[in-house]
Write a structure and sequence with these properties.
The complex is a heterodimer of chains A (about 110) and B (about 110). Chain A is built from no helices and eleven strands. Chain A has about 110 residues and is an all-beta fold. Chain A is globular and about 45 Å long. Chain B starts with a strand and ends with a strand. The mean pLDDT of chain B is about 95. In chain B, the strands form two sheets. In chain B, strands 2, 4, 5, 6, 9, 10 and 11 form a seven-stranded mixed beta sheet that branches. The chains are: A mainly beta (about 110), B mainly beta (about 110).
């Protein structure tokens, strides 16, 4: 089955800095990669996703890049703000298969004011 | 549109008891998945239901079961509770099986 590894497990940055979280996946058939943000005590919320026919996608201060050859994808947050502090999860899903995403273990992002 | 709702939000049970959790998907969504979230294991997939049929099951013992009703609402049941079942149980709904998933707030289950 699919295996997703996420790094780092904890990331501490100063407000205004950029943050990058990286994930690798094992199944070359995976073609959908969502990112979720989970604030303390709240539900995971989809913040951005990318499909394998696209190399990069941006939404304001967040972007995701995908390298299918290397089987890794990354979340980039620019101009970080304290409200970006949360746990971020990446996931990979294979189309035409089970449709079940495999999640990474999560990255705790701390943005210091 | 209202989001995914789950009831109850909090539960405290003792070992050996059973529990039923409920999930109401976003209106029009037909696929419901359940996940167990713990600090040590992250998000672990439990089941996926679509059109009242279980389409996939994760690697959990038979004490964990579920079902989906004709209105797409779903329930999951855990029998003979163990201490290790303490977790946040999340359900997620999607329009169809290959669309993005939206999570509910979760049910926090504590087993004493």
């Amino acid at each position: 089955g699919e295996n997703v590894e996420q790094h780092p497990s904890t990331l501490s940055v100063q407000e205004g800095d950029s943050a990058v979280i990286k994930c690798t996946y094992s199944d070359s058939a995976s073609n959908y990669f969502p990112w979720y943000k989970q604030e303390l005590g709240k539900r995971p919320q989809l913040i951005i996703d990318i499909r394998s026919n696209v190399g990069e996608k941006k939404d304001q201060r967040i972007a995701v890049t995908l390298n299918k050859t290397a089987k890794h994808f990354s979340l980039h947050i620019t101009e970080t703000q304290p409200e970006d502090s949360a746990v971020y999860f990446c996931a990979a899903r294979t189309a035409g298969g089970s449709y079940i995403p495999t999640f990474g273990r999560g990255t705790s992002l701390i943005v210091h004011p | 549109k209202a989001g995914v709702t789950q009831t109850p939000r909090y539960l405290i049970k003792t070992r050996g008891q059973q529990v039923t959790l409920s999930c109401s998907p976003i209106s029009g969504h037909r696929s419901v998945s359940w996940y167990q979230q713990t600090p040590g294991q992250g998000l672990q997939f439990l089941f996926e239901y679509f059109s009242e049929t279980q389409r996939n099951k994760g690697n959990f013992p038979g004490r964990f079961s579920g079902r989906q009703f004709s209105n797409s609402r779903s329930e999951m049941n855990v029998s003979t509770l163990e201490l290790g079942d303490s977790a946040l149980y999340l359900c997620a709904s999607s329009l169809m099986r290959d669309n993005e998933q939206f999570f509910g707030p979760g049910t926090r289950l504590t087993v004493l």
